[in-house]
Design goal:
143 residues, mainly alpha
Length: 143
């Protein structure tokens, strides 16, 4: 009877000493519960990391648009930029700005007009000299 009293008085005392045995079903259930908790925890962290990356990408694109506008460059150039990080983005914009400014400087000085320039000579241009002969014939105009 004394032995029976010890077992009912403190059932948890025997559990800590390794006397309790688990069935395979108990072990599987415990492992499944712990795996489910870890997966839920990791899934939440992955979603958070993905959201942070998307937010950072959007911020870089907004910064790039602002920088393009400040430098007088077309905002459509945003798709041509490397926006992996801020330093690379700034370097890409600087390169575009240099090329764009060189292009603008050279474009205005090398412009040459060919063909008829109104008021330049006071006479009608010759269709053969301007290359319009075929067009005039196709339209039924006099040559």
């Amino acid at each position: 009877m004394d032995e029976q009293l010890n077992q009912t008085a403190d059932p948890a005392a025997g559990q800590g000493t390794g006397e309790r045995t688990f069935t395979q079903d108990d072990v599987n259930r415990i492992i499944q519960e712990r795996l489910a908790k870890e997966r839920a925890k990791n899934s939440g962290e992955a979603d958070l990391a993905k959201r942070e990356q998307e937010l950072a990408r959007r911020e870089l694109h907004m910064s790039a648009k602002e920088m393009l506008a400040e430098k007088g460059l077309p905002v459509q150039l945003l798709d041509a930029l490397n926006c992996t990080d801020k330093e690379t983005m700034e370097k890409s914009i600087a390169t575009l700005e240099t090329v764009f400014n060189e292009y603008k400087a050279n474009a205005s000085s090398n412009m040459r007009f060919t063909g008829f320039q109104p008021g330049a000579s006071g006479i009608m241009p010759d269709a053969e000299k301007t290359g319009d002969l075929e067009i005039r014939r196709a339209m039924g105009l006099s040559t």
